[in-house]
Amino acid sequence: MNKALAALASASLAANPVPAFAGDDGKRPTIVLVHGAFVDGSGWAGVYQILRKDGYEVVVLQNPTTSLEDDVAATRRVLATITGKVVLVGHSYGGVVITEAGSDPKVTALVYVAAFAPDAGESVSSIVASAPPGVPALPIVPSADGMLMLDKAKFPALFAADVAPDTARFMADSQQPWGAKALEGKISAPAWKNRPSWFLVPQDDHVIPPAGQRGMAQRAGATIREVPGSHAVYVADPKVVVALIEEAAARATAKPAQ
To answer: Which residues are known catalytic residues?
Structure first.
């Protein structure tokens, strides 16, 4: 991680120390990590390891990414197994999933990482269609059965420019196909309307334009943090992502002042 990001992560943790949590059972919330399109849960490994070291229970969700309905069902299936409070974290298309699934009463906070945060009736498709002129189209390669992938040759520079080259190449070659139905899945009731939310915007994101992320974050009333980084900031710089997750966990679950 470069010096600027290291300083940001250290400053955020110093300004927002994680206090003792006082939920119904006195435990810290469980962190549920939801991956996005073209990747799987393995990309969360660095974030997972730091959170575990810091004393959190963590679940890494493996979405089928076949349709929004299927992915929300997979998320709710995991939430049903957890006792106590949850901080729900979504990367990229995973932000759509947590927006729909985050109304679960166990969820106390939402964290968006380089993500979509749609409103009611919106989908990834409709958000992309409303992008301002000049935003380049993604090099998506469709298959005959309705699944989508990114052009492998363009993946590293587009998705993971700040990730180690060997890792970025592995991510390109191990893509999880994204279902066209997931692209079209519409939000019914966005959870960010009644849950506090946090948003990490990587300034060098070439998949979801940073300006679009800022607009969605502001609409949601989210706490916004901006950092240098690519769409795969959660892989390249897990500490800065953890800093935001722990800030959300602390503020959303701490007891009010007496």
So the answer is: 92
